[in-house]
Amino acid sequence: MRMFPSLRTVHYRLLATLWTVGILVALTLPTGSMPDTQGTNVDKIVHVGLFAGFGLLWLRGLCPPDSQRLSACFRRRGGLLFVGGVLFAVGTEVYQHWLPVQRMADPYDVTADLLGFVVAFVGYYVYHVGRSDRASA
């Protein structure tokens, strides 16, 4: 059962692009414009969610689960996406550090970003790629 049957691959690519731009915009907001979450883990949960969405949307847009050669697509495009996602997660924190809007790079944010991205990546692989491999065997 597909969650959004009316969305096609091109829609997922557009959503992934908008999600990525949204992450960059959110990370450029000054810290004074955000609620204070000092002493809570809300910030880290948001980072995990943002990068899980990033990973899922890009994986769905680049390696659709209904494609005939999903395993090959995942190996080729998924590998590039994994490297790009890791660089994006680290790069967003470097980007925040360089901005003159009272933002700081945080190694725990990078960890949360990577956790969200890796969970999405592994989940997509297990649910879609592993399933298609078992179905074709």
Counting DSSP E segments of at least 2 residues, the number of strands comes to: 0
The overall average pLDDT, rounded, is: 85
- C-alpha Rg, in Å? 16 Å
The secondary-structure class comes to: mainly alpha
Q: What is the CA–CA distance across the termini? A: 21 Å
Percent of residues in beta strands: under 5%
Report what the structure shows.
With 137 residues, this protein is an all-alpha fold. The chain has a domain at 42-136. It contains four helices and no strands. The protein has helices at 9-28, 42-62, 70-98, 107-136. Helix 2 runs antiparallel to helix 3. The radius of gyration is 16 Å and the shape is elongated. 23% of the residues are buried.
Descriptive keywords:
137 residues, mainly alpha, 4 helices
Provide a brief overview of the structure.
The chain is built from 4 helices and no strands. It is mainly alpha-helical.
Q: What's the structural blueprint in terms of helices and strands?
A:
Blueprint: H1 9-28, H2 42-62, H3 70-98, H4 107-136
